[in-house]
Prior knowledge:
By secondary structure, the protein is of the alpha+beta class. It is 45% helix and 21% strand. It has one domain (6-62): Rossmann fold. It starts with 5 loop residues before the first helix and ends in a 5-residue tail after the last helix.
Amino acid sequence: MENEKVGYKIRNATLRKVPYLVIIGDREVSEQKVTVRKRSGENIGPFTIDEFIEIIKGKIRNKSHEL
Length: 67
């Protein structure tokens, strides 16, 4: 799967109903952030890794799937 294009990977994850896609490219590396996209395709913003981990922990505690 490493040699596949990013668009294919995103589409494949969407079809598999992965709730969140975490995108890490050159820009994210330089900013030390991750871009997060919902399954619907909506970008919900760049977060530091710690911020995103806290969001996910909160969702787990609340058993909610909305970000």
